[in-house]
Amino acid sequence: MKLLFTFIIIGTSLATGYCQSATDYYKKGLSQSREGNHKSAISYFNKANELKPNEPIYYFQRGYSKSELQDYRGAIADYNKAIELSLLLTTNSNAISGTVAAMYKNRGAIKSELQDYRGAIADYNKAIELDPNDYQIYDNRGTAKFMLQDYRGAIADYNKAIELDPRHADIYVNRGAAKMELQDYRGVIADGNRATFLDPSYAKAYALMGLTKVLYLGQKDSGCYDLSKAAELGFEQGYDLIREHCN
User: Fold this and answer.
1) Is 0.70 topped by the overall pTM?
2) Residue 39 confidence (pLDDT)
């Protein structure tokens, strides 16, 4: 699942040190998060929240840092608060809508990590309502549908993600995996080929094609070559699959 890290600098009034101080802590938290120091980032976001407890973006960024530390339930609590506060805003600007969409998107990704796929899909639906042109939301929702064995629904979402941005090899592999479940083996190979065209070092694409050729298309030589390529590129199970299917 793909999470969004959004850098948003909150405007402040020079007339009061209260907001400025909260903003300073927030900026320090962003800097620490950018550097991967998420524990330190959380401590700064905590201070920002203490000074300005109704600022949704503080909870959003703290939720991101918590998710990076695999504190998924803590992240969901922060995303819940960020969404609750954001919905109280009266503005309907594109910037606000995009930020709230990112909140739903990130919460959906965490729910998927916790295997709450239906909850994830509900969040992705909300995110799409607010930002229908974000390809990652469709990709993420497709994966949640895949996990619920809704393979046709998953393919429809992967199709939309590719329509919006066709440059990402992993989405073709995701779609290929769904096609395999529906026994569209030629479609699997087509998606695998496209993925390796976009990213010649993408081991999973070669593994997907190799297994499909060996198991379902009777193309052992070509399939074993693909499995060998996947293993060379670091696919962990590659050599085991070669021993099982190619020797």
Assistant:
1) yes
2) 97
